């Protein structure tokens, strides 16, 4: 039988390069998209191979696998997000079990591939060095800040009036990795995304800033990632992308795509979904905006569009700043060379840019960049032709550009997303200066914002904090905005399928007690807790750890659900394994019972923090 390889890149890969190397040579190298991520090769030499997955604008991940002689070898990689969650840039794929195993915490060169011989018990020996130990070694070589800052993440929804926001009426799902929080907003079939109210995301960082953005609610869901930098809590890395890989390919291409990657997106995705269809109900408004922006940034590859298409876009989603900017750009690009046509294009463009400012803030950073470039460029034309253009158009241009320029200190960007900073009202009142507020408490107003996460950030760490005695979460149940408890088609590993939901809760003050089987050790897994003091005598940091014995195989992407007291927001978190451990860091002011569910082995664990020998007094007595 010949030696062959069937290779599938991660299903969530949007657009990026895939390179497969073995025996000192490249056997495949292509720009992959959601519709072009499979490679088939025949008559390969047996041995070790590596595949590097490099999405546009994202740190690459590598997977090492072995091709066996005389076999039809199959490598179907897990999701890219699961590979990224390992804490290492290199993982090992067990071709026999078709599972990606423990991470190899080093970068492997083409030359060194030849010298690696994997031991019989690969998963046990490769997981001997925990990723946390690797990170700790790296951190010990540089100065790491010991500061800790409170963070709060909230969602608000627009009221009937413009720029007035109230509580969010949708759902969220959360997953916590070491130093990284992922929040997903699933598709809401009750919403009309073309006409419904806008949603705003707010992130407050204690003594740093309050950052906001208008949140695109993409078809297929929106994923928000918040990461703690490795060496200092003075900042947070925020990224917002579609869950749907095809829409994500458009965002990646706009933000960090090369011409080659944009061509691949055009040929594999846009050719099959015509530009006109992007304005149809099968897509969403942000998909249409992204295609329009791509056509402006890469006019020789995507497009060209005409002003009529821009008019139709603005007619359908006039509430979006970005739609009016696209319309203005198409008006300028499509004008005839005659003076009269150019004068009319300038006048129309100024009108469209003014409409953009009325609409509010941009969704995409590139839209804001286009606004500034067009407003500045139009000034030169008006100056040279002021007599023909007239004072009305000139004055209107001056006002809108002056406003845009005045707000530059508050403008910010996070990847492709446009964000802005809350202003310092005292500085504005006393000194008439528009500057960001740099001393926030790290909290958000609960009366007009749905708080979906309260925690603390330190160097490379994100901890969840109890809401305290004044928390609005009720006792006796699990208060997580993510839950769809009555969804019949929920996946088997979703929180709604947790066996504990089939049992009555424990006491009102400790609803998890007795609900998760009462055992901290079961089926080769152990739940433990350690305690650290904080600056406040009324609070304690708790490190919760689920550890698997060496005989238990843990694959990339395996996770545990940690269920906390209802005063936490959220009170249940999905935590991925790194090596053979899943860890959650929290802060609390009293004792309670922690419940854990591991969906893959269908195992439940339970730990009463107040019953642990040596637990702090505030845990034992409250």
Report what the structure shows.
With 622 residues, the chain is of the alpha+beta class. The protein is 25% helix and 28% strand. The chain contains 15 helices and 29 strands. The strands form 4 sheets. Strands 10, 11, 14, 15, 18, 19, 20, 21, 22, 23, 24 and 27 form a 12-stranded mixed sheet that branches. The protein has an 8-stranded mixed sheet with strand order 17-16-13-12-26-25-28-29. Strand 5 (47-55) and strand 6 form a beta hairpin. The longest helix is centred in the middle third of the chain and has 21 residues, at 339-359. The protein is globular. It starts with a strand and ends with a helix. 44% of the residues are buried. Mean pLDDT is 83; it is low at 102-135 and 468-490.
Task: Furnish the topology, listing elements before pairings.
Blueprint: E1 4-8, E2 16-22, E3 25-32, E4 38-41, E5 47-55, E6 61-67, E7 72-76, H1 80-84, E8 90-94, E9 99-103, H2 110-113, H3 122-126, H4 131-139, E10 149-158, E11 165-167, E12 173-177, E13 180-185, E14 199-205, E15 209-214, E16 222-227, E17 237-242, H5 245-256, H6 259-270, H7 285-297, H8 307-316, H9 321-333, H10 339-359, H11 365-384, H12 386-389, H13 391-406, E18 411-414, E19 417-421, H14 425-431, E20 450-458, E21 461-465, E22 521-522, E23 525-533, E24 540-548, E25 559-563, E26 572-576, E27 581-588, E28 593-598, E29 603-608, H15 617-621
């Amino acid at each position: 039988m010949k030696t062959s390889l069937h290779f599938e890149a991660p299903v969530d890969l949007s657009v990026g390069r895939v390179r497969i190397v073995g025996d000192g040579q490249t056997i495949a190298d292509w720009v992959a998209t959601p519709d072009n991520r499979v490679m088939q090769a025949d008559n390969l030499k047996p041995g070790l191979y590596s595949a590097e997955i490099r999405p546009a604008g994202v740190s690459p991940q590598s997977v090492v696998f072995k091709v066996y002689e005389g076999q039809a070898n199959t490598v179907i990689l897990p999701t890219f997000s699961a590979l990224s969650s390992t804490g290492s840039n290199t993982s090992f794929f067990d071709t026999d079990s078709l599972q990606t195993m423990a991470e190899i915490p080093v970068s492997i060169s083409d030359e060194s591939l030849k010298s690696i011989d994997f031991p019989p018990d690969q998963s046990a020996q490769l997981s001997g060095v925990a990723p946390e130990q690797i990170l700790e070694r790296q951190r010990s070589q540089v100065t790491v800040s010991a500061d800790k800052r409170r963070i709060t993440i909230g969602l608000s929804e627009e009221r009937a009036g413009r720029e007035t926001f109230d509580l969010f009426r949708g759902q969220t799902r959360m997953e916590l990795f070491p130093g990284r929080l992922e929040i997903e907003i699933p598709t809401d079939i009750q919403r009309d995304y073309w006409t419904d109210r806008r949603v705003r995301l707010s992130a407050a960082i204690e003594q740093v800033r309050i950052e906001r953005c208008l949140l695109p609610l993409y078809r297929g869901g929106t994923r928000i990632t918040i990461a703690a930098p490795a060496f200092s809590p003075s900042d947070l890395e925020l990224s917002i992308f579609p869950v749907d890989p095809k829409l994500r390919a458009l965002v990646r291409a706009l933000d960090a795509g090369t011409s080659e990657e944009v061509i691949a997106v055009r040929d594999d995705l846009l050719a099959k979904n015509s530009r006109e269809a992007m304005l149809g109900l099968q897509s969403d408004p942000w998909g249409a905006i992204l295609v329009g922006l791509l056509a402006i940034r890469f006019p020789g590859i995507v497009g060209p569009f005409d002003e009529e298409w821009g008019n139709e876009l603005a007619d359908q989603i006039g509430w979006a700043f970005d739609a009016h900017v696209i319309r203005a750009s198409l008006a300028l690009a499509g004008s005839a060379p005659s003076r009269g046509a150019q004068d009319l294009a300038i006048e129309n463009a100024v009108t469209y840019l003014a409409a953009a400012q009325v609409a509010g803030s941009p969704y995409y950073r590139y839209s804001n960049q286009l606004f500034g470039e067009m407003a500045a460029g139009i000034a030169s034309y008006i100056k040279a032709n002021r007599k023909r253009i007239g004072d009305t158009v000139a004055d209107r241009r001056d006002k809108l550009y002056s406003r845009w320029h005045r707000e530059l200190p508050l403008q910010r960007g996070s990847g492709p997303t446009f964000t802005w900073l809350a202003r310092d009202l005292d500085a504005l009142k006393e000194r008439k200066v528009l500057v960001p507020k740099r001393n926030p408490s790290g909290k958000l107003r609960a009366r007009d914002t749905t708080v979906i996460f309260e925690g603390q950030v330190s160097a490379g760490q994100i901890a969840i904090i109890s809401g305290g005695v004044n928390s609005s979460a009720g006792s006796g149940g699990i208060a997580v905005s993510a839950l769809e408890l009555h969804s019949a088609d929920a996946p088997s590993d979703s929180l709604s399928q947790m066996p504990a939901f089939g049992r009555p809760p424990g006491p009102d003050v400790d609803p998890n007690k007795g609900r998760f089987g009462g055992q901290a050790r079961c089926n080769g897994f152990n739940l433990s807790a350690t305690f650290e003091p904080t600056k406040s005598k009324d609070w304690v940091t708790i490190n919760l750890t689920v550890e698997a014995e060496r005989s238990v195989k843990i694959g990339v992407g395996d996770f545990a659900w940690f269920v906390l007291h209802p005063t936490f927001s959220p009170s249940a978190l999905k935590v991925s394994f790194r090596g053979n451990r899943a860890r959650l860091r929290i802060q609390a002011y009293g004792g309670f019972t922690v419940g854990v569910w591991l969906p893959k082995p269908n195992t439940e664990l339970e730990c009463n923090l107040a019953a642990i020998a040596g637990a702090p007094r505030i845990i034992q007595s409250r």
